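Private note to self, pasted from the team thread so I don't lose it. Backbone tokens:
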């Protein structure tokens, strides 16, 4: 008799445990990174399809090239650093700038009014003109 009583009390606890496990699996599935792929039983490494990755070397910025801002607004900074670089202006979407040089994930640019500064470089922020 004692075994049956314990089994009846265990059912709600067991149900809650299964429910918690199910919710964790669903949450993990919904929050996994989208750009990563995992090769299973394959000798070839998988290739990431992450669109936020750096642009390929063929489209690397070169001095003198033009680039167009594709995000709503882009900060123009005095230094290529979000911590130390003071924001000296904003560059609105559609503005074409002259690329002076590349410094990692930053571009040193000149605006049409002659102002020079640094903007963050990425495919979702700024698009290089055809080379």
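Design output:
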């Amino acid at each position: 008799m004692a075994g049956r009583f314990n089994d009846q009390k265990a059912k709600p606890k067991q149900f809650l445990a299964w429910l918690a496990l199910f919710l964790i699996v669903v949450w993990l599935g919904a929050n996994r990174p989208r750009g990563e792929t995992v090769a299973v039983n394959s000798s070839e490494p998988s290739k990431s399809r992450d669109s936020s990755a750096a642009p390929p070397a063929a489209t690397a910025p070169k001095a003198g090239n033009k680039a167009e801002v594709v995000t709503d607004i882009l900060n123009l900074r005095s230094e290529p650093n979000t911590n130390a670089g003071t924001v000296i202006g904003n560059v609105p979407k559609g503005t074409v700038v002259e690329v002076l040089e590349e410094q990692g994930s930053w571009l040193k640019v000149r605006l049409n009014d002659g102002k020079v500064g640094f903007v963050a470089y990425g495919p979702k922020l700024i698009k290089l003109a055809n080379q």
